[in-house]
Write a structure and sequence with these properties.
The structure is a single chain. This protein has five helices and five strands; from the N terminus they run E-H-E-H-E-H-E-H-E-H. It is an alpha/beta fold. The protein has a single domain, classed as Rossmann fold, CATH 3.40.50. The chain has a five-stranded parallel β-sheet with strand order 2-1-3-4-5, with helices on both faces.
């Protein structure tokens, strides 16, 4: 198993935060700034995990997850997807899970929770920092 993580996120501040947090643990972050770009990158690159914002400027994260799960690249049906979103209304987590996401996290991003969620699917290449 590798350590390539695709983050589909249009907010540059969130992208930088997650990039720094995950690279400090030895992961390699691939970036996509909208849903279409994310789907294309997921289909072209070898990824081990996908972090997915729900509120994207072109197609929403629910549609992205649906497209990934039904992609012609068969392996994408099994790549873990973690939805990371500011949507905190009742039913949002269920909607993300129904669309094909495996885990739902709310923003603002808690780095320790992010590390734990990511490491549950893709063990860190670097030893855990206490």
């Amino acid at each position: 198993m590798g350590n390539n993580i695709l983050y589909i996120e249009d907010n540059p501040d969130n992208m930088m935060l997650v990039k720094r947090a995950l690279e400090s643990r030895g992961y390699h972050l691939l970036e996509a700034v909208n849903g279409q770009e994310g789907v294309v990158k997921a289909e072209k690159e070898m990824v081990d995990l996908i972090l997915l914002d729900i509120n994207l400027p072109d197609i929403d994260g629910y549609e992205v997850a649906h497209r990934l799960r039904h992609s012609s690249k068969r392996g994408l049906a099994y790549i873990p997807i973690i939805a990371i979103t500011a949507n905190a209304l009742k039913g949002d987590a269920e909607k993300a899970l129904s669309a094909g996401c495996d885990v739902y996290m709310s923003k603002p991003i808690n780095i320790r929770e992010l590390w734990a969620r990511v490491e549950a699917f893709v063990p860190s290449p670097n030893p855990r920092i206490p």
